[in-house]
Amino acid sequence: MYQANLSYKVLTKYLTEVSEASLINFELENQCYVLTAKGREFLEAYREYSRDNRHLEKRLNEINGKKKILEELCSSE
């Protein structure tokens, strides 16, 4: 909670959401949360999505830059 700079209220909200989605489970014997197989699958899919999204954003910025150049070349001065 402290390392993530989250309030207790926000932390409990997030823990409830990921628990209900079966991404984590609480282990009574160790008194801690553990990632489930579904949680690991989610993280892998999110990493892939995030990587692809960064790539697409970079490419879109390049395309928009080229579009701007073309628009400037076509504008009458």
Description of the structure:
The chain contains two helices and two strands; from the N terminus they run αββα. It folds into two domains: 1-35, no CATH class; 37-72. The longest helix is centred in the last third of the chain and has 38 residues, at 37-74. The protein is mainly α and 77 residues long. Helix content is 66%, strand content 10%. Strands 1-2 form a two-stranded antiparallel ribbon. The N and C termini lie far apart (58 Å). The protein has helices at residues 8-20, 37-74; strands spanning 24-27, 32-35.
Layout: helices, strands, pairs:
Blueprint: H1 8-20, E1 24-27, E2 32-35, H2 37-74
Antiparallel strand pairs: 1-2
Please report the number of helical segments.
Answer: 2
Radius of gyration, CA atoms, in whole angstroms: 22 Å
C-alpha geometry: elongated
Largest sheet: 2 strands, antiparallel
The SS-based structural class is: mainly alpha
- Helical amount: 55-70%
In round numbers, the mean pLDDT is: 94
Strand content: 5-15%
Provide the spatial order of strands within the biggest beta sheet.
1-2
Query: In total, how many domains does the architecture comprise?
Result: 2
Task: Give the terminus-to-terminus CA distance.
Answer: 58 Å
Question: Are there runs of 5+ residues with pLDDT below 50, and where?
Answer: none
Strand count: 2
N to C succession of SSEs: HEEH
